[in-house]
Specification:
- The protein has helices at residues 3-21, 29-50, 54-64, 68-86, 90-95, 97-125, 132-142, 147-157, 161-190, 197-228, 232-253, 257-278, 282-309, 318-346, 356-362, 368-375, 389-411, 413-431, and strands at residues 383-384, 387-388.
- By secondary structure, the chain is an all-alpha fold.
- The protein has one domain (68-431): Na+/H+ antiporter like fold.
- Strand 1 and strand 2 (387-388) form a beta hairpin.
- Helix 9 packs antiparallel against helix 12 (257-278).
- It starts with a helix and ends with a helix.
- The mean pLDDT is 81.
């Protein structure tokens, strides 16, 4: 079967699962799709390996032919980040800019180091001698909260604005920063370059600052073209060029395409949208918004289905599953520490909801981005106790991601409802 046909059928399955979920499970859509895909994966594994079903084995083989890393990091990531950034309220983000900046920079770096340290200790405890740089590489790919997973779930649960803007803003920006950190550590782990402070800083700043600057350039060009165009369809197509051609160009010139999409999306969604409203183009604004909501919905459904189905192509052993399960509390503990320390400082200057740290910790979901980064680790270049490092880290990442989406994603509702209730009580007390 042609890969394009496979992607078409997978997209249709994802949408049908989302449709059925409305009437049977009534779960959050992305959680239902991921859970359904995991169940389907287990059935395929059972049919293909235990019962010898040739059809199931053929399907598993076709899924293995999909290049998940390229599909997400070089394709779907641009439109998904751009669509998410379009809905960010810049005025609300400005009020929380210092919190978001510190969480993005300090939180991501601290979590990267802590996860790497915890994994190094766990592997040593299990008798696996692994260089610390590889543990740090896992810390870099698993520490950024995935904006695709976070935005899909937080939006639908209607979290309080004071919390949602921090969760959404952090996830969008630490996605780009996390990719830069991962790229930096990856270069040190798999190239012969000497890890000096100068070349690490140069690589980091080129990717990060270059991505931000390129994103602003794309936004300014897009703003000019969108405000000058007199055709509504052309305006819609112009927005499509930014996360496709613009994202591809960012990757080609060596800057962070992720950060570029976040910056350009926020600018277009706030500055350009306001300018279009002042010009009386409300119907065009609605059309563009509806278009990107549809694109985001279809891509999210497809991505989360693919995440669940990845199980069929992963080599699984009992010891590796145990290591993946042990990595879950390690990742959560690192997240808790990296969020709690900044909030201990924030609370000296501003009052926060008592659930903020818990929501940011438990709501810091991991998703396809972490899996794509794990899939980019070269196969056959490093081994741990006879196990390919690529396969080991990919399986550990998969277990953490599935737990994050299904367990954390489905159980964060009580925390959000508690936060909403606490805010309502505070407002009533203030009025009294």
């Amino acid at each position: 079967m042609d890969t394009w046909y496979l992607l078409c059928f997978l997209s249709a399955i994802a949408i049908l699962v989302a449709f059925a979920n409305q009437f049977f499970l009534n779960m959050q859509t992305t959680i239902a799709i991921t859970a359904g895909a995991v169940v389907l994966s287990l059935l395929l594994i059972l049919s293909g390996k235990v019962l010898g079903n040739q059809t199931a084995a053929a399907i598993s083989g076709m899924l293995g032919s999909v290049d998940f890393k390229s599909l997400l990091l070089e394709g779907m990531l641009g439109p998904l980040l751009f669509a998410g950034a379009l809905e960010i309220d810049l005025r609300a983000m400005r009020k929380r800019r210092w919190e978001i900046t510190i969480l993005v920079l300090f939180g991501t770096l601290a979590s990267t180091f802590l996860v790497g340290l915890f994994l190094f200790w766990l592997l040593g405890w299990m008798g696996w001698a692994v260089p610390f740089i590889y543990c740090l590489l896992f810390g870099a790919l698993i520490s950024p909260t995935d904006p695709i997973a976070v935005l899909a779930i937080i939006k639908q649960m209607k979290a309080p604005p004071s919390i949602s803007i921090q969760v959404e803003g952090e996830s969008l920006f630490n996605d780009g920063v996390g990719l830069v950190v991962f790229t930096t550590i990856f270069a040190l782990a798999f190239t012969s370059a000497e890890p000096t402070f100068g070349n690490v800083a140069e690589l980091f700043l080129t990717e990060a600052l270059g991505g931000i600057a390129f994103g602003m350039l794309l936004a300014l060009v897009g703003h000019f073209l969108l405000t000058k165009s007199t055709d509504g369809n052309i305006r819609l197509l112009l927005t499509f060029c930014i996360p496709t051609a613009g994202f591809a160009l960012a990757n080609i010139i060596g800057v962070s395409g992720a950060l570029a999409m976040v910056v350009s999306g926020i600018f277009i969604g706030n500055v350009t949208r306001a300018k279009a409203a002042s010009m009386g183009r409300l119907s065009s604004i609605r059309n563009i918004r509806n278009f990107w909501h549809a694109v985001e919905g279809v891509l999210n459904a497809f991505l989360f289905l693919l995440i669940g189905l990845l199980l069929v192509i992963l080599p699984v052993t009992g010891q590796q599953i145990l290591l993946g399960l042990l990595a879950i509390p390690a990742v959560l503990l690192a997240r808790l520490i990296s969020v709690s320390l900044p909030y201990a400082v924030f609370q000296r200057f501003r009052t926060y909801d008592k659930h903020s740290v818990l929501i940011l910790t438990w709501g810091g979901l991991r998703g396809g981005l972490a899996l794509a980064m794990a899939a980019s680790i070269p196969s056959g270049q490093a081994y741990v106790n006879g196990v390919d490092l690529h396969a080991l880290i990919l399986l550990i990442t998969y277990i953490v991601v599935i737990f994050s989406i299904i367990v954390q994603g489905s159980s964060i509702s009580p925390l959000i409802r508690g936060s909403i209730a606490a805010q309502a009580d505070t407002q009533m007390a203030a009025k009294a």
